[in-house]
């Protein structure tokens, strides 16, 4: 890998992170009742109905479902 490829990868990663931060901010405005993990799930393509269905299936809150999903992404 040469230096130009590394620079392109860093720029691409920064663009992605900026877009994700904007998306999380917008989700915070449009979903004020959602917790941090729930907003992360929404930002990554989960629908509110999907999250609610999983929460009902497991008998837990939406935030707990999303927290488990985020922890699974990190491992």
Task: Summarize the structure in words.
By secondary structure, the protein is mainly alpha-helical. The protein has one domain (about 5-75). The chain is about 80% helix and about 0% strand. The chain has helices at about 5-30, 35-45, 50-60, 60-75. Helix 2 (about 35-45) packs across helix 4 and helix 3 packs across helix 4. The longest helix is centred in the first third of the chain and has 28 residues, at about 5-30. It is elongated. The chain starts with a helix and ends with a helix. The model has no long low-confidence stretch (mean pLDDT about 90).
Order of helices and strands: HHHH
Q: Could you report the average pLDDT, rounded to the nearest whole number?
A: 88
Span from first to last CA?
27 Å
* Percentage of residues in DSSP E strands: under 5%
Morphology call: elongated
Number of domains: 1
Could you describe the largest sheet, including whether it forms a barrel?
Answer: none
Class inferred from helices and paired strands:
mainly alpha
State the helical fraction: over 70%
In DSSP terms (H or I, runs of 4 or more residues), the helix count works out at 4
Beta strands, count = 0
Unreliable spans are none
What is the radius of gyration computed over CA atoms, rounded to a whole number of angstroms?
16 Å
């Amino acid at each position: 890998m040469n230096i130009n490829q590394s620079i392109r990868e860093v720029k691409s990663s920064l663009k992605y992170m900026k877009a994700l931060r904007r998306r999380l901010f917008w989700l915070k405005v449009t979903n004020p009742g959602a917790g941090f993990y729930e907003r992360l799930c929404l930002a990554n393509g989960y629908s509110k109905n999907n999250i609610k269905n999983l929460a009902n299936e497991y008998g837990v809150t939406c935030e707990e479902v999303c927290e488990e999903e985020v922890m699974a992404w990190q491992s």
